[in-house]
Amino acid sequence: MKLPKHARFATVCLHAGQEPDPTTGAIITPIYQTSTYVQDALGQHKGYEYARTQNPTRSALEANLAAIEGGRAAFAFASGMSAIHAIVTQLSSGDHVIVTDNTYGGTFRLFDKVMTKLGLQFSYVDTSDPSAVEAAMTPATKMVFIETPTNPVLRLSDIAACAEIAHKHGVFLVVDNTFASPCLQRPLELGADLVVHSTTKYLNGHSDSIGGAVIAIQDDQIEWLRFIQNSAGAILSPMDSSLVLRGTKTLALRMVQHTANGVALAEFLSEHPKVTKVIYPGLPSHPQYELAKRQMPNGCGGMLSFEMASLEDARQVLNRFKLMALAESLGGVETLVCHPASMTHASVPPERRAAIGLSDSLIRISAGIEDIEDLRDDLRQALA
Ligand SMILES: *Cc1c(COP(=O)(O)O)cnc(C)c1O
To answer: Within 6 Å (CB) of ligand 1, which residues are found?
Structure first.
């Protein structure tokens, strides 16, 4: 198995980092469930000494993820949050960070409740407006951290514009690419310095693992991430590394179906008389439709949200779904629905929810890869 030099995306997903097992020829990278490695003689080992530092299953996944995102190196962590935490450890007390205002709740909690205690400062700004990023720059700013599309109102930030502003000020840009996946959005090609993922979502894609990853291109950042991964030790387990590797093999195929179902559900809901608003970046009604076409040329994926006339209407609909499962999380093969105001965003104060356009009657859908007719039938009966 030799990956051609100019292999296309689906081929890279399947083959990058995947060598047959040297001892048996097993086509799938084995789960190296070991804590240590026996050395031939004092000072003579095969490149593996202790499994927090090196594990072949994790290394295979990291090589795969680096290739998929178009980066030079990837580091797999125990969760998306530990991946984000590893990025923040590059900073020092007194440093300032610009963050997308409606960033993932766990990211906000880590920054606001933990990192401020250690002397970091954060400004939460509407990064969908590049001039707001520019205006938030201070002499202490070291990092811009954006999420696009955001959860659950699917607001986009212009990655190339944010990268240009960040670099003009000598700071680095991080993009949380969890909602889009590298299949639909290529932050490093648009100028970002680091990409972070919750592999829990589309990369693993099968709702059976928690994990995270950082993909990097610059030597100093690669060196630091390798150092902190080993020093803090929030590594992804061999079993989970194997699960995510299985997931990325079908990423290209899955994203086509997630996107097709996302579009179809968004169109169905747009025409439904009981639905007052549909939010999907791939619909011409989305305020950033033009940016979506430019930044996500292969489609906008499976995340969409819609509003009912009242909270009571939303509650009734949510309780009537049969095929779609009421659950937090997203990006799995099965369709999930949730009520952000009372579930994922319950800890966000009501006035902040209102400010980002998250109403109490908003329902979020993570479209899975079921037959679209069955998903439409379920929506139709739930809304009836
Ligand atoms: C889920 C999620 C995270 C956190 O990832 P975990 O794997 O749950 O720790 C971070 N960012 C985004 C956008 C997410 O959806």
So the answer is: 79-81, 104, 106-107, 147, 151, 176, 178-179, 198, 200-201, 210, 212
